[in-house]
Amino acid sequence: MDQQAFDFESLIVDIPDYPQPGVVFKDITPLMADPKGFAAVVDAIADHFKDAGVTKVVGAEARGFMVGAPVAYRLGAGFVPARKPGKLPRKVISESYTLEYGTNELQIHVDAIGPDDVVLLVDDLVATGGTAAAQVRLIEKTGARLAGLGFLMELDFLNPRETIAKATDADVFALVHVR
Question: Are 71 and 40 spatial neighbours (Cβ–Cβ below 8 Å)?
Fold first, then answer.
C-alpha cells in the first residue's frame, strides 16, 4: 500500500474535553484497529528510516510500544522499551523530564543499548517534545548514535521541534501534523 496516499486522519477521532475541559484528545485506536491503517503507519515510519542502519528502536510506555515494536520488526532491529520507574527488573539508566504538572522519568535496562547501536525513537505522538528529549538524553548516556525520531502524530501548535532541537539535530519525522 502507498502510505503517502493513506488518509490517516480519517481514522483518528477527536474527543473534546478529554481528559479535561478544553483539551481535544486525538484517539488513534480506530487507526490502530484498522489493518490497512496500522500497516500504513508502521510501513511509513520504517520506510522513512530504512537506510539509516537502525539496530534498535526505543518506544516509550505505553503507546510507543504499539508503534515502535512493529517498526523494529519491519527494520530487522531490536526493540527497547522505555518504561516508568519500577517496571524493569534489572539495573537501569534513568532520565527525568518536566511535564506541565510536574516531573516524570523514563528508564531502560543498562545493557539494552550499546555504543555500537544506531537507535530510532518511535512514539505515537509528540506534543511538547519533553518525553522525546528525555529519550534522546537516555540514548546519549549509552553512547549509541541516534538515527532519528519517528511519530505517528505531531501537535505542531505546541512546537515540539523546538524542544527536540535543544536535545538533538537528528531527523524528526511525523505522519500527521495537527496545526
Answer: no
